[in-house]
Structure formats: C-alpha cells, structure tokens
Amino acid sequence: MNHWIVAPVALPALVAAFIVLAARFDLLLQRTFSIAATAALAAIALGLLLLAADGTPRAYLLGNWPAPFGIVLVLDRLSALMLVLTQLLALAVVLYAASGWDRQGRHFHALFQFQLMGVNGAFLTGDIFNLFVFFEVLLIASYGLFLHGAGAARLVTGFKYVTVNLLASTLFLFAVGTIYAVTGTLNMADLAVKASQVGPEQVGLLRTGVALLLVVFAVKAALVPLHLWLPGTYGVACAPVAALFAIMTKVGAYAILRVHLVVFGGEGSPAAGLVEPWVVPAAVVTLLLGTIGLLAARTVQRLAAFSVVASMGTLLLALAMPGPAATAATLYYLLHSTLAAAALFLLADLVAERRGPVRDTLVAAPAFPQLDLLAGGFLLAAIATAGLPPLSGFLGKLWILDTLRAHPAWPWLWATILGTSLLSLLAFARAGSLLFWKAVAIAPPPAGDPPPRARPVLPLVATGAIVALPVLLAAFAGPIARGLEATAAQLHERTGYVEAVLGPRPLARAAER
Amino acid sequence: MELLVASGVGVLTAVGVYLCLRGRTFPVVLGLSFLSYAVNVFLFATGRLVVGRPPIVDPAAPGYTDPLPQALVLTAIVISFGMTALVVVLALRGFLEAGSDHVDGREPGAEGRR
Questions:
Q1: pLDDT by residue (tens digit) across A444-468?
Q2: A323, A483 in Cβ contact below 8 A?
C-alpha cells in the first residue's frame, strides 16, 4: 500500500487543526502554514498523477481492514487528475487571499484547509457513505468560507445555501440507505459487482436509490431545476471563496461520473441508463438559462456566477453521452471551465477593488490603475469562457460537438451550444467594453484624488497564473487529450477499479455464481 | 411493526417537507430537523427490523441485527445535530442584520431590494 494516497486528506486535516489550535491569533503564521501546506499538497498531487499514469488503480485500505468491510480510498487516473486540478486552483486562491481577504474574518485558512480535505476526500474515496461524509466536510467548511466577511446579504443568502445543501444531504442519506437495503454493501467496487446480482423484485428499489443519488449530485452540479442556489451564492461570496467554489460544482459532475458510470453503469447493471434520458434535456435548459443570466447580469461577479451555470450545462451535456470519447471531452471541458470561472471571479474582484464606489457593477466609470493589464486578463478569460479560438474553451466545445454527433437530436444540441456561445460572447463583449473601453473615454475626476498607494503584487500573480492555465491547456492540448483519453478508457473498463479493491476476478466470479 | 415504522418515516418526512416550504426561517429550521429525524429512522430500518438481537458478537445470541446502519445513523445524527445548531445561529444573525425573519431577508411586499 502506498501511503501517499491518504496524504491529500490527512495533511490538510492536520494543518487545519494546527492552525486553529496553535496559530489562531497570528495571521502571518496562518498564512505561512496554509500556503506551505497547499504547495506541498500540489506537489503530492502531481506525484500521485505520475503514479497513476501507469494505468493501474490503487486501493488504500484505511486501518488495513480488508475491503469491502473497511473503508477504502482509490487512486486512479481520474481521481489523480481531479486532485491536481483542485490543488492548482487552491494554490492560486490561497495566494490571492493572503494579500488581504483573509483578514476580513477569522479562521479563513483553517476553513480553507478543511475545504481542501473534503474535496480531496470526495475525489479519492471508494465508499459511498464515505462520499457522503466528505461531502459534509466540504460543505461545512464551505458554509464557513461563504460567510467569511459576513454582511446582511451573505447571511440571508447563506441561510438558503445551507438549507438547500442540508436538504440535499438528507436526500443523499435516503438514497444511500435505499441502496444499502437492496445490496447490503456501501463499497463502490462491491456495489458494482452486487448491482448486477439484484433480484428482479428489488430492481425498482435499487433504481429509485440510484435516481435519488443523481438528484443529489445534480444539486451540487447546479443542473436545472436545481441550480437556483448557485448564482446568488457565487454572486455574493468573497472573491477568493467564489473562485474556490468553481471546483465544487465539478465535485457533483465527478460524482455522477464515478457513481453512475463506474459503479452502476456496467453492462447488465439494472441501474444503468438513468443518466442520459434525464440529464441531456436538463443540461440543455441549464445552458440556455445560464446564458440568459449572463446577458442579464449587472455585476462582473454575477456574470462569472452565471458563466458557471452555463458551463455546467455544456459539461453535463457531454457527460451524459455514453462512451469513452464523450467522457474524455467532458474531462477536458471540466479542466477548462473550472480554471476559466476561477479566473473570472478573481478578475472581477481586482477590477472592483480598483474602480472604487461603483465596484464591479456594469456601468461606465473613469479609468483606474493597471487598466491595460486587467483588460488583457479579462480578454483572455472571456475568450476562454465564451469558447473562441485559440484558447481551451474553443477546443473543449469543439471536442464536445464532435462527440454529440452520436446523439439522435444532435442538430438541436449543436444549435444550442453554438447559439449560447454567441450570446455569451455578446455578454462578455458588453462587459469588457463597459469596464475598459468606456473607462478610457471618461476623464478621471479632477485633482484632489489621493496619491496612488502601493498595490500588492501577489493577487496579480495569482490571477495571472489562473488566466495562464487555460492558455497552457490549449497549447499542450495534444498530450493532455491523450492523457484524458487514457483516463476515460480506464474509467469505462471498470474491471481494473473493481479488482484493485476486491482482488482478482470478482466480476467473473459473480457471473459464474 | 413495519407499518408503524414506515408510516412514522412517512409522516415525519411529510411534516418536514411542508415546514421547509414555509416562508419564515424558524419553520424551515424545524422542517430540516424533522427531515433529519425521518432519515435517521429510515436508515435504522435499512438493516431490516429485528427485535432483541445483539449487533456485536455474542456466543449465546440466537441471531444478530445489522450493526452497520446503527453506525451510519450515529454519523448522521452527529452531522445533523451540528448543522441544526449552525442553521439556527445563521437564521438569528440573518434576522438581526436584515431586520426580517423572512427567508428572502425582507418582508413580502416591502419596497425596494435588500
């Protein structure tokens, strides 16, 4: 057993506890430990990605209890990829927050580390109840982070956010209970084996449980009609938190991939085939509503929030398609949309901070310092989000369009994706021209303004790194795509995952019985 | 007994869903509590209803009850208890800061946006 597999969960848990207990009153110490831990996590995640690149999934038995009785963590290509994405995003966000945002309330860094622990755990776990626990860990930390900085708007929206997620958690428990009652196991690999042996009189119950799980993950992934919590939440959270939350919708998408594709998606599984008929129409509506929201947004942060909704629509449309090619396209778009959304949230905050009283409202206002730099960053992020060449949004959407040809209604799906891309381009062009071009035309207020104060350079570096990642994603699209195709193939092959957890040939043995 | 447990879960869930759809924060908090009670009883029943049997090894026992749902319920109780405390504090702070206990943060029909 390779003990590095548990490090992405154990390290942030230890660091968070240490920060709360020992460094509660020393912000510098908190920042040092938080940044160092996140950097170490990024290195560990890259190491795990290299480890997983040989194509064998690895199981980690917690407490060395044999599966399926104990809890397992499983490292395969997909979980390693998600870990790397999370850690890169987290590193940029913690650097950004360390220049001032973390001073607005207490325990930012401790909550941040707990959030990382929950997200990493959700990506690694091989047990469906454990998935619930890690969802709770990441949600509880996210409640704290969301309320960071407080204010009436955040408290009122926070109540709704917490309520929606508590309802989803309750539904998660009902689903897990139903699945356990039918199969007698909670281990994902064991479920994949047992699902095909469920007697005909219990198939309905199993399908109900799996469908309930799909609803829970759809809440996390902001699929219409369960998306209503997202724009308000992401629109009022403080900027680094909103940027970190860009990964949270992807946790929902990951869970659908893992549970509905790997665990219940096998041939002969009575719970297979639930995703496509439900998710495809819902994803189309998500995409449309998200784009309408983009056009109606009145602040840059809400623009970014609705771009998350729209991108989840595109993502889930591809995710619902069967076959490894569609999964590979989904993963590429997942990488891209997480980074692009985070870049937009951070840019919105940088612009808001410099524009003074109008903040990031979409009205013309006088020019502000570092306008050229931010305009360049916004241009890149907008191009990436709207899906114009040459950045990763274009490649991702092109790949998704290519895989959608397998769907009988593909002309309609193509029309939706291309039409909404055009509309989102309009929304971003309007925002960019209001923020940057019209600002140049308006004379700055007459003298008497205070001397320019030194601006911290760290937020610009962090935002620059996040903006540069979609560029790299496009520049190295070839090697990345090959890696993602291998990831998708491993995911659809399934036996490797099951055998890593349960030992050799459990699927075949189950079939013989 | 099956009828009693099943209808208990059903009634608790119905009450919880009804209260969660109310417009004030306090009924919503109560509704969340009712739903968590419902799911706890439901989880308990997923290991099948067994009376008077031990969950852990006992040589004299004629049979066993499934111990796993009991562990799951314990986890669920801890989480839902903590979350109820959090959501109560959140509702109170929201009421104090926004001046209204409506879930939208303002009285229905009140002028202007919050």
A1: 665 555 555 677 888 999 999 999 9
A2: no
Question: Which among B28, B46, B93 is the nearest to A177, CB-wise?
Answer: B46
Q: Are A75 and A60 in contact (CB under 8 A)?
A: yes
All residues of chain B having their beta carbon less than 8 Å from the beta carbon of residue A186 are 68
Q: From the DSSP assignment, how many helices (H) and strands (E) are in chain A?
A: 21, 2
Q: Give the domain extent around B19.
A: 2-52+63-98
Q: Domain tally for chain B?
A: 1
Tokens of A83: 């870990």
The answer, for B74 touching chain A at a CB cutoff of 8 Å, is no
Contacts of A169 in chain B (CB under 8 A): 79, 83
What is the rounded distance in angstroms from the CA atom of residue A308 to the CA atom of residue A301?
A: 11
Residue B90 lies in a domain: yes
Residues B21-80: tens digit of each pLDDT: 998 999 999 999 999 999 999 998 998 888 888 888 888 888 888 889 999 999 999 999
| Closest partner CB to A162 (pick from B42, B90, B98) | B90
Q: Is B97 on the interface with A (CB under 8 A)?
A: yes
Residue B114 domain flag: no
Six token digits for residue B100: 């209204």
In a domain, residue B57? The reply is: no
Nearest CA in chain A to B44: A177
ipTM of the complex: 0.93
Is B58 contained in some domain?
A: no
